[in-house]
UniProtKB/TrEMBL annotation:
The lineage of its organism: Bacteria, Bacillati, Actinomycetota, Actinomycetes, Kitasatosporales. Residues 187-312 form the Riboflavin kinase domain. It comes from Streptomyces ficellus. This is Riboflavin biosynthesis protein. Keywords: ATP-binding, FAD, Flavoprotein, FMN, Kinase, Multifunctional enzyme, Nucleotide-binding, Nucleotidyltransferase, Transferase. One of its GO terms (molecular function) is FMN adenylyltransferase activity. Belongs to the ribF family.
Length: 314
């Protein structure tokens, strides 16, 4: 899959393509429907499929300080899109100047002049251009002028976790923030993932007999609510069952919120400096401060047992 950053990276001899545009944070099941349809149409027509997305999130430029928590960094989104069969991903730097493009100018500058769109696939709520003035009706209207088709893909409705709402990144972020990682996984189609580099912490886990990987998460990461979770720790290509702790470590009067993962039944791991991924499978319990270290150790043993059971055979 080709990856471009900015319009200038697009090959000058690029021909017609099927295009879909959006932030696509999380590449959840609604996004998968749209992207999957773009790939399908591209194959039918014998031309490439292209996903156009933005960095940073448009809200951060339009309303500084409002950057939403991210469900997936751009490299992870690209991986997920490649798995769906996408031929190219274009990340457009979203600047104040870019945000002022009118819907018509956006269409000409991106879809017509550079990507030579043959078909554009979008969800029903797609908005674009200055002050989000453009919608799918306007996109289709200009398609008659610039020789491209527009196809709208309806988003499926979530189950019980989502309360019957359409699949959305906003809903997924809320579920993650509430600690409902199983509900989030229903929308994502996979467990929610947090990534970062393993750094040295206070090493209390090692002292207690449960050495943890202290993950320095990427900026704006959507981190689940404080508590203990079952999941997996992936490092150097190896996926290991894990007991995951999120919070401030109140047992030792901590103040900084951290994500720490204990690779269950693994001894002698040295993960410092490695970029790792932590996948959240299920909520186990909330963050607590215990009466004694012995009570804490008993709780940790129970947590590890529960996490081992939840991840077994998964």
């Amino acid at each position: 899959m080709q990856r471009w950053r900015g319009l200038e990276d697009i090959p000058q001899d690029w021909g017609r393509s099927v295009v879909t545009i959006g932030s696509y944070d999380g590449v959840h099941r609604g996004h998968q429907l749209i992207i999957g349809r773009a790939v399908e149409r591209a194959r039918e027509l014998g031309i490439p499929s292209v996903v156009v997305t933005f960095d940073p999130h448009p809200s951060e430029v339009v309303r500084p300080g409002s950057h939403p928590p991210l469900l997936a960094p751009h490299h992870r989104r690209a991986e997920l899109m490649a798995e769906l069969g996408v031929d190219a991903v274009l990340i457009l730097p979203f600047t104040a100047e870019f945000s002022k493009l009118s819907p018509a100018d956006f269409i000409v500058k991106v879809l017509v002049d550079k990507l030579h769109a043959r078909v554009v696939i979008e969800g029903p709520n797609f908005r674009f251009g200055h002050k989000a003035a453009g919608d799918v009706a306007f996109l289709a209207e200009l398609g008659a002028t610039y020789d491209y088709e527009v196809e709208v893909v309806d988003l499926y409705v979530t189950g019980e976790a989502g309360g019957g709402e359409p699949f959305s990144s906003t809903l997924t972020r809320r579920l993650v923030a509430e600690g409902d990682v199983e509900g989030a996984a229903e929308i994502l189609g996979r467990p929610h993932r947090v990534e970062g580099v393993v750094v040295r912490g206070a090493q209390r886990g090692r002292e207690l007999g449960y050495p943890t990987a202290n993950v320095e998460t990427l900026p704006h990461t959507a981190i689940p609510a404080d508590g203990v979770y079952a999941g997996w720790l992936t490092a150097a290509g190896e996926r290991m069952p894990a007991a995951i702790s999120v919070g401030t470590n109140p047992q030792f009067d901590g103040t900084e919120r951290t994500v720490e993962a204990y690779a269950i039944d693994r001894v002698g791991l040295d993960l410092y400096g490695l970029h790792v991924a932590v996948d959240f499978l299920a909520y186990v319990r909330g963050q607590q401060k215990f009466e004694s270290i012995d009570a804490l150790l008993e709780a940790i043993a129970d947590d590890v047992k529960r996490c081992r059971e939840l991840t077994s055979g998964r």
